Amino acid sequence: RNRRVMIFDKINTLLSERSVQDGPLEVTSMACGPARELQDIFLDLQCNFPNINLHLVDHDHGALTLVKEWMDQIESFPHTSVSLNQKNLLYLASGRESIDIPPQDFMYSMGLIDYFKDRTVILLLDYIYDTLKDGGKVALGNFHVCNPNRGLMDCVLEWKFIHRNEEQLKDLFLRSKFASACDIIFDDTGVQMFAVCEKGRKNNGSLPLL
After folding, report:
1. pLDDT tens by residue, 35-50
2. CA pair distance 130, 17, nearest whole angstrom
3. DSSP state at residue 20
4. Torsion angle in degrees (nearest 10) through CA of 89, 90, 96, 99
5. Structure confidence by residue, pLDDT tens digits, 141-158
6. H or E segment at 84?
7. Among 50-64, 168-182, 183-197, which is the least confidently predicted range?
8. Helix ranges, the chain (H)
9. What global pTM score does this model have?
10. Are 108 and 33 in contact (CB under 8 A)?
């Protein structure tokens, strides 16, 4: 599975696990870009009216404009809300900006932390921890050090990503407020990995993977 499908499947699973009494599923996409994985959710659930509140965050106005364009083309859902937030995630994490959202069930980014040094990732993780509900989950994508295109990306395309291995990602979570090692899963290429963790999880606990 690729990252888009993995996030799509995770949100579908979370929706299927909820009862009416649980209220809407609260989901935040960080550095959302055009959020095509969320478009997939809507197109797949046209007749099921998912009970979900989506909070999309990106500093790029153009990315949020693309989201609005596909939102305008699909059927509206009576139990769904989507908020578009042009915010800088580093400013949110440092307290320089704020966003009015309730405690979240799931927060994710498919491509964000591989732009950031370790100290910045830990700052972001602390913000995510504070924003999640108890038992809420996070999934963050990062390029793995085994990426065979790393030299091309760095030297030719000048895409300066910070590649990490499994232990480095786990260490970041341990040094954050999560204070727990994350689980690591890979897409089909083995180049992209997701770090997945639950707020309040014990180090010896198990977490359903994406």
Report:
1. 999 988 888 765 465 7
2. 23
3. G
4. 20
5. 998 776 545 444 554 444
6. strand 80-86
7. 183-197
8. 3-16, 36-44, 61-72, 89-94, 118-131, 150-151, 166-175
9. 0.88
10. no
Distance CA 160, CA 158 (A): 6
Beta-bridge partner residues of 57: 30, 85
| Residue given tokens 């994508």 in the structure block | 141
* Beta strands 192-198 and 52-58, pairing class: unpaired
What type of residue is 209? L
Contact 129, 177 (CB under 8 A): yes
DSSP 96: S
The H or E element containing residue 54 is: strand 52-58
The pair of three-digit structure tokens given for residue 122, joined into one six-digit string = 């830990």
Tokens standing for residue 147: 């990426």
Q: Which two tokens stand for residue 203?
A: 């180090």
Q: Classify strands 132-143 and 192-198 as parallel, antiparallel or unpaired.
A: antiparallel
